[in-house]
């Protein structure tokens, strides 16, 4: 089963055009200080955005099933690299309504089970194939 399907294209430089299978258009680039033109979010920003969106959507779905009123949901994320330690993500979730301790614990448990969290946390193996647009000479 394919869970997502995206195409990324570029004519030169670091700016990238991203098209999802559903036809949504996104842009990615590096900031000017890193040699890009800053015409889109940096790749790590897009990764954190995916995690944050998935977290908020999953929490909202869970709360809707439980008939809990969460109010506004805010997700703040930081990708942190300190010395030789591996990178890690810091995620802070803010909800607009009061929840008791048991509800809060359940929301934290659900946050750790979101699909993107589960994909990122252990690392995702990547299989890579290189294709060229021209056929090699025979």
What is the CA-based Rg, rounded?
Answer: 19 Å
The total of helices stands at 3
CATH architecture of the largest domain: 2-Layer Sandwich
How much of the sequence lies in strands comes to 15-25%
Query: What is the count of β-strands?
Result: 5
Mean of residue pLDDT values: 91
List low-pLDDT spans: none
Q: How many strands, which pairing sense, and closed or not: the largest β-sheet?
A: 3 strands, antiparallel
Q: Which structural class fits the helix and strand makeup? A: alpha+beta
Estimate the global geometry from the Cα principal axes.
globular
Order of strands, widest sheet: 1-2-3
In CATH, the topology of the largest domain is named GMP Synthetase, Chain A, domain 3
Distance between the termini: 37 Å
The name of the CATH superfamily of the largest domain reads: K homology (KH) domain
Question: Tell me, what is the CATH class of the largest domain?
Answer: Alpha Beta
Helical percentage:
25-40%
Domains (count): 2
Give the ordered list of helices and strands: EEEHEEHH
């Amino acid at each position: 089963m394919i869970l997502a399907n995206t195409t990324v294209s570029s004519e030169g430089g670091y700016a990238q055009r991203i098209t999802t299978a559903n036809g949504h258009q996104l842009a990615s680039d590096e900031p000017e200080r890193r040699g890009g033109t800053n015409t889109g979010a940096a790749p790590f920003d897009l990764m954190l955005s995916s995690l944050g969106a998935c977290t908020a959507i999953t929490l909202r779905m869970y709360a809707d099933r439980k008939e809990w009123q969460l109010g506004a949901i805010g997700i703040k994320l930081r990708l942190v690299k300190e010395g030789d330690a591996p990178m890690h993500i810091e995620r802070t979730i803010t909800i607009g309504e009061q929840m008791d301790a048991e509800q809060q614990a359940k929301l934290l448990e659900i946050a750790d089970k979101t699909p993107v969290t589960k994909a990122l946390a252990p690392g995702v193996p990547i299989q890579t194939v290189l294709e060229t647009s021209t056929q090699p000479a025979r």
